[in-house]
Amino acid sequence: MATTRPGSTPPATTCNGCKDVGIFAPVKRSWRIPVWVAIYLAVVAFAHLADRLILFPSTAEIPAGAAVRTFIPFENGQLEIWTAQSQLAQSSGQADAYVLRFYGNADRADRWVADEAEAWNERAIEIWGVNYPGFGRSTGPARLARIGPAALAAFDALKARSGERPIVVFGASIGTTAALHIAAQREVAGVILHNPPAVRQMVLRQFGWWNLWLLAGPVALQIPRDLDSIANAKAARAPAIFMLAEKDEVVAPRWQRLVVDAYAGEKRIISIAGANHNTPVEGAALADLHHALEWLLPRTGKE
Length: 303
What we know:
This protein is α/β, with parallel strands linked by helices. The protein has a single domain, classed as Alpha/Beta hydrolase fold, catalytic domain (Rossmann fold, 3-Layer(aba) Sandwich). Helix content is 38%, strand content 17%. The protein has 12 helices and 8 strands. Strand 1 and strand 2 form a beta hairpin. It is globular.
């Protein structure tokens, strides 16, 4: 048995089951903060938070009725475009004007284009409905950063077909960000915007408080400049029709009004009483839209 002389240092012992104590414990715990910061920054930088939280692409086949599918080149792939003509355009053999249509999140052009063309039967128009990258058979991935360039590609392809005939860009919900980007970058005959969101402002002000902006901040920073509806509205000069759902539960009226107030061109506003975000435009609201089109389309050399 080992003994220790008075005043000597006890021999070192090992204790595999002992916990760290004394000055060593804080040193190890201090590494936790940098590790969590590194994980947070990695998620922010590489996880495409905004894309994952905002976009809801689908690729399943959807019956398209009388609409015709076509494709245009985009980046290293293709954009799926669905087209349909109103009865007047079919009977006359040509369209006098074109509508470039952008739909809401989780929606698709193939679902609506044929029905919408019928709603324009008093005019000889052709609708081009765009499926965003990653939606339908438009090649992916689905990214917010690809919506703006895809919108311009669709417009330029339509412009090559339309020649001097007017093009109206029409967007609903997140589709209004694409329509406004075109209106700020290209010369268009008119703009129709249905429930337009100010996306970055919504993310920061509506969803930031409950996560202390640790999630909302990075998501807002990842909204591309192309889709900054406030900036694009300030740069747009074409006449515009705004259709605003009075009881929108997805894009609250206060966020829509930010876009309306920023819009620099002439505008007319249709307030849809009692409507929610996805309430169809019909009845009195549809009549108001057709009345507003009498103001918008004569500027385009309608007839």
